[in-house]
Amino acid sequence: MSRLTDLLRTAKQLDPQLGKDLEEEIRPLQKRLPFGLNFERHAPEAVELAGHKIRNGSKVRVLPPRGSSARGDQRLWRVDKVIGDAAEISLLDSSEDETLTAQIDDLILVAEFRDWIYPGLRQDGTVERGGNKPFHTVINGENFHVLEQLTFTHEHSVDAIYIDPPYNTGSRDWKYNNDYVEGDDLYRHSKWLAFMERRLQLAKRLLKPNDSVLIVTIDEKEYLRLGLLLEQIFPEGRIQMVSIAISPPGAKRDAAFRRSDEYAFFVSFGDAAPSPLVLSPEWDGAKKTTTMNLRWVSMIRSGTGALRRDRPGMFYPVLLDEASGALMGVGDVLPLSSQRIDYRAPEGTVAVWPIREDGSEGRWQVGPDTARALHADGFMRIGKFNGTSAAISYLKAGEQSKVLTGVFGEVGRSASGHVEVEAAATATSRVPTTQWALASHSAADFGSRLLRNLLPGRKFPFPKSLYAVEDALRFYVANKPEAVVLDFFAGSGTTAHALMRLNRQDGGRRISISVTNNEVGADEQTKLRKDGLRPGDSDWEQWGICDYITKPRIRAAISGQTPDGEAIKGEYKFVDEFPMSDGFEENVAFFTLTYESPWRVSTDRSFAAIAPMLWLRAGASGRRIDELSQGWAVADSYGIIKELDLAADFITSLQLQDNVRVAYIVTDDEGRYQQIANEIPGIETVRLYEDYLRNCESNGDF
């Protein structure tokens, strides 16, 4: 390549722009593999962003006149100056110096995937039936850009990704560069691979490298190429393909066998593996008998952040009867300024503190309020009492659910008040084969027909069987009651719905992140354009997939009511049977992706758009901090401070909270940031807006 490098250098001297263009075209060729999957990675990709604000410096396209169904001008322009309702624009990437003045209404914002973006979120409502459970989230936006946003909020934090991408059938089922990809497009497969590779590269940054799974469904059009692509992107993953019968009668194929199945690639990372489960006789597979025991864990914190000073709000006495050692109650937090020796236990009781093996003062795993609830429910247990101390253990949420749902039969309470269950529960469990042929996986019966029950009169092409998605996820998250599951081709919202069913079955607190755009179907677009409408108009957007299908489906599933307020007809079947009108005790928050100015972010003028991302990073649980009128605020799972002179009050408030995960510190001063961070060990600290901006500018190389 040295000769080619010399020629490029000469070309740059003669014509810098020509040299740059040649270099950009040659770079992908240098990255090509000598064997394996080769395709045109340099094919450009950009997206039109209807309804988003146009500013000075924005990239735009000029829309065709209202009422026209023409493709329109595909050239890119730069906004030089916004003047009221109009803008002066100049042509980009052209030797011609062409400028014009256009109405803002006739322009649409464009983002190329090589550009840096600075994402924010705008809330579009919530449904809250789940009490203190964390929130599922639905994000309306271009999925590539939402994945970039998630690298700030969820890097290496996702337990499972389930996606059902476009199958590239050639029947206008997906777009590349805002154009439907037709069956006669010679670059159809190359475009699909470039489209998928960019998104999977970002998805890789979100998965937990030591224990997670990626599940991708596909049919015969692209399964061979997809398999090679997954091998190249995830060389550390263990890949297996499962065949799932989704259409017992079969779908007609010209001059070929009728197709009755599709494929699911499971890419497992680290310790992730399918769990043996109790399955119905329809499943095939090797039987394995396992004995399950209720798992009590120590209530004393171990590992990082385990000292009293790390979380002073988790240092308090557990009170035992001085004669029998029975659990009598839980005391209040002992302030950091006070000593244990100064504490006087109530008469007839002994105070047990979280003292580590080396004699140092540790802290409990849970706060005093949670400990009192555990005691009341019988989920705290006292070990052998020696007159002054005893080992204290408790049941975490997943084990509690096994008692509450009857996996372990409760036989009563011990003398000290903890639940006693049957000595062991024995069950026959299976890991199935790679051939799944179950009636519950029929897409027509439990995808399309089920969706009609939820959304009468509304149609969506080829929704997945709810139970097929549920089963695929169950094998990997059954033992993860707080798993985070992402679907960035969310479509009709089946993945979120399936996760709600899994939560109901075992009392889990798993959360889904569903990402979809608000694309309007091809036929509907033609009609709307003839009516003089454009993307971004409210009468256009109401028919988009997110607003018309995804959000209404998830609202209906939780509430048990159709969009018209009627009780949903029918019942859920198979593993957990109950009326669909019962809904689910879950919470969900809806958002739309926004595009912010880096200057506005860095000067704290876009806090309203960044605030939801801070809440998401902290676990999407409890109250969200939307303003900082007092200079700092602490919510259930995180805190934010921008008036650093008030740091002492902020730190005290953080330490009194049981479940704080993240502290956000707004400052340009690295020294002051480190000073505050050092005062709150055991809590993740993030510097705003430096960490956010750096993350945004690490993306874009796709």
**Could you tell me how far the N terminus lies from the C terminus, measured between alpha carbons in angstroms?**
23 Å
Biggest sheet strand order reads 7-30-8-27-26-9-12-14-13-25
- Strand percent estimate: 15-25%
Distinct helical segment count: 18
Average of the residue pLDDT scores = 89
Helix amount: 25-40%
**What is the β-strand count?**
34
Tell me the major beta sheet.
10 strands, mixed
Radius of gyration: 28 Å
Q: Explain this structure to me?
A:
This protein has 702 residues and is of the alpha+beta class. It has 18 helices and 34 strands. The strands form nine sheets. Strands 7-30-8-27-26-9-12-14-13-25 form a ten-stranded mixed beta sheet, sandwiched between helices. It has a six-stranded antiparallel beta sheet with strand order 1-6-2-3-4-5, with no helix packed on it. Strands 31-32-33-34 form a four-stranded mixed beta sheet, with helices on both faces. Helix 1 (2-14) runs antiparallel to helix 2 (16-30), helix 3 runs parallel beside helix 4 and helix 4 runs parallel beside helix 5. The longest helix has 19 residues, at 188-206. The model has no long low-confidence stretch (mean pLDDT 89).
